[in-house]
Amino acid sequence: MQEIKQLPPHVVNKIAAGEVVERPASMVKELVENAIDAGADRVDVVLREGGTAEVRVVDNGCGISPDQLLLAVTSHATSKIQSDDDLFDVSTLGFRGEALASIGSVAHLKLRSRVATSDAGAELQVDGGTMGTVTPTAAAVGTTVSVSDLFFNTPVRRKFLRTIRTELGHCTETLTRLALAHPQIHFSLTHDDRLLHDLPPVPELRDRIAHFFGQPLAEGLLEISSQEGDILVTGYVAHPQNSRSHTKMQYLLLGGRFIRDRSLQHALSEAYRGLLLRGRYPICFLQIEMPTDQVDVNVHPTKLEVRFRDGQRLYRQMLSALRTRFLKANLNATLAPLESAPHFTKQTASLPLSTASGSRDGMPNRAIPVNLHERGNPSSAAQDTSGESEADHAAFSASAFSDATRNDVAHTAGHPVNTEQLATVPAIQVMDRYLIAESDNAVIVMDQHALHESILYEKLRKKILSGPLDRQPLLVPEPVDLSADEAAALLDQRETLSQLGIEIEPFGGETVLLTGLPSLLAKQNRGKLLQSLAAQLASPGGTAERRDLLDELLHMVACKAAIKAGDVLATEEIQVLIAQRTESKTSHHCPHGRPTTLVLTREDLDRQFLRT
Ligand SMILES: Nc1ncnc2c1ncn2[C@@H]1O[C@H](COP(=O)(O)OP(=O)(O)O)[C@@H](O)[C@H]1O
Ligand SMILES: [Mg+2]
């Protein structure tokens, strides 16, 4: 082993730069944060070549006096904290005192600044860690920091930079986060002499959201406001109709910074459980305010992650704030406006519903006896909108549920149809899969499968909460062969399965003995049923929590038992469904998160027909 030596400062800075300066966007973040900490209310960001050639940030903050310039670019020199105690009471964005020193070690850094009490400013240049001298210069009050030729002296890291477009994208995202967190500050972003964003101060976060993501998204947001003790959560979440395939649009803002927090992201997903399809993620813009001593921001070099003193408490508050808000909201989806249709002209405007009348040869619906649970003909099966794979269906041979569901429908058939929400004009079935009804001021289109599924799910859930489902012991217990991990995963969940009326016992080796089934599943292909359950449980990230598992199982059962797309319904069956829909609280979405109902309001129609 070689002798141990203290590293020289320029090496230390380069190491620190590895953590703080990853790409041009990192500099945008550090420099803009410095400007905000300096009390600026105007910050202009100017980029060249995606920031790889130059990142320049101009602010009108308090400035740096000439005698402090050298310290500003020295590592571990900061004006923001004095002692280690301050570390747990951080009210500024920066405090580590390493950003300027790090940037100066891997680029050309030019600092020009003037404080209000002085007539002249001063500037200082640092080139790849080599400090220049402070020289007087003319300058406006505030600070301009220019960083050029990032990584000119670390060619290896320069190679990691992506295309100009990608780097510009990261810079824009960085500025978006900062601008959302500070609506009261005027920001601008210019790239290669083109002004990309000009953001005058606005009173409301929502105005900033509208600027970056468009008015329609901003208008559809649901406002959140929750205070519990000294923790305040305010801002907006999107209607489930607006979701993304990624979590990038989950803006969590804490103390003026954008943060990422897995636990809070999980709270979000929990709140949207059953409202979004698998693989879709909510959009949110939430501000969290809490006393500074409740959170440790010194756990991540760029402070992207923080540690909460009581993360559980924040988790619960966020979850309950969102859930409460959803209960008050109208979560029905609306039909997409026609303006977005590619060839919209006055002559060719085609109403999305126009096919409804043509496709059913004038008959509102055929009163043919229906087998609710046979799949439609092959072509309708192929277009099945329910989104599950054939394998899923095979595992739960759908016909097994027919009796239970039939009874379900029959029981309610005698009840009067509640006409509070839907007009007395009976609903009609179109294309063997959608129901159309009229309400006070709108046309309502329902997906018969999704709707029935959501109703069944709610019913089953209620039933399970009041005790296990009715079970039926098997006269001859059935051995089911599984893989070792599947058998283990299944046996681990014996109790939960038993709540559903599914009884199993170990049978040695990789075989599990099925001894009882809920009556609902009596006619299933039992082996396949258990195998598909086990496979799901054993899959990575499989449902570990008991509640999740129960929920998953209920989803499965509800889905298999529900009327399918392609099932022709009799008039009274439609009426029963509609009546049940009125009674149900959650029928706006099926348990997989698909909307069950689309609403086309009279205003929408008037607009489409150019009446307004
Ligand atoms: N735009 C600015 N306006 C005024 N002062 C600044 C500005 N940028 C940096 N400074 C000063 O330089 C110091 C070092 O900045 P930096 O290296 O980013 O560390 P930190 O922000 O963690 O303190 C800051 O503490 C601040 O006093
Ligand atoms: Mg800083």
Keywords summarizing the entry:
612 residues; alpha+beta; nine-stranded mixed β-sheet; five-stranded mixed β-sheet; 35% helix; elongated; binds adenosine-5'-diphosphate; binds magnesium ion
Distance N terminus to C terminus? Answer: 83 Å
**Bound heterogens, unique:** adenosine-5'-diphosphate, magnesium ion
Q: What is the mean predicted local confidence, pLDDT?
A: 81
The number of helical elements comes to 21
Helix percent reads 25-40%
Low-confidence stretches: 337-420
Number of strands: 24
Rounded to the nearest angstrom, the radius of gyration is 31 Å
As a percent range, the share of strand residues is 15-25%
Q: What about the largest sheet?
A: 9 strands, mixed
Shape: elongated
Structural class: alpha+beta
Can you tell me about this structure?
The chain has 612 residues and is of the alpha+beta class. It contains 21 helices and 24 strands. Strands 1, 2, 3, 4, 5, 6, 7, 8 and 9 form a nine-stranded mixed beta sheet that branches. A five-stranded mixed beta sheet has the order 10-11-14-12-13, with helices on both faces. A hairpin with a 3-residue loop joins strand 18 and strand 19 (434-439). Helix 1 packs across helix 4 (99-106), helix 6 runs antiparallel to helix 7 (205-213) and helix 16 (484-492) crosses helix 18 (526-538). The longest helix is centred in the N-terminal third of the chain and has 18 residues, at 164-181. It binds adenosine-5'-diphosphate (ADP) and magnesium ion.
